[in-house]
Amino acid sequence: MKANWGRIGKTIVKRFDIIDHTADTGIVAYGTDLKEAFANAAYAMFSLIADLECVKEETCRTIAVEATDRESLVVAWLNELLYLFDVERIVFKRFDITELADTSLKAGGYGEEIDASRHGLGVGVKAATYHMLRVTKGSGYYSIRVIFDV
């Protein structure tokens, strides 16, 4: 398992872990609230795709998704971002979740058009899946586990 750390103010916190899975790959994203966990799940997915340290925040897209429940919302959110990556060739590195309910999400995604010579492309993520999908609330944190079809 590979960990990735982020900073909230002066506090260093774990943003996500990468989990090994036969033939696919997955992540467990963490957040002090559900919005942060959703944002970190998206960040983790794009960290599999590209070296996010090299990505600039030159463009923003507003993303709105709906689903039947919280777990389906995770899949809809991540697959919408993958759609924007595939169609508009935008790699995102920051996510501002502005509205979040059990069945809907609105957010801003910030990044730039992919540049293979600068962004150190990694794994080709095809889709977020329902396999082993889980959204949980722990003691003072939320976690989201997602397996990606690669």
Question: In brief, what are we looking at here?
Answer:
By secondary structure, the protein is an alpha+beta fold. The chain has two helices and nine strands, in the order E-E-E-H-E-H-E-E-E-E-E. The chain is globular and about 40 Å long.
> What coarse outline follows from CA principal-axis ratios?
globular
- Uncertain spans: none
The largest sheet, given as strand count, sense and whether it forms a barrel, is: 6 strands, antiparallel
Tell me, rounded to a whole number, the average pLDDT. 91
Range of strand content = over 45%
Alpha carbon gap, first and last residue: 17 Å
Rounded to the nearest angstrom, the radius of gyration is: 14 Å
Order of helices and strands: EEEHEHEEEEE
Helix fraction by DSSP (H/I, runs of at least 4): 10-25%
Q: How would you classify the helix and strand content by structural class?
A: alpha+beta
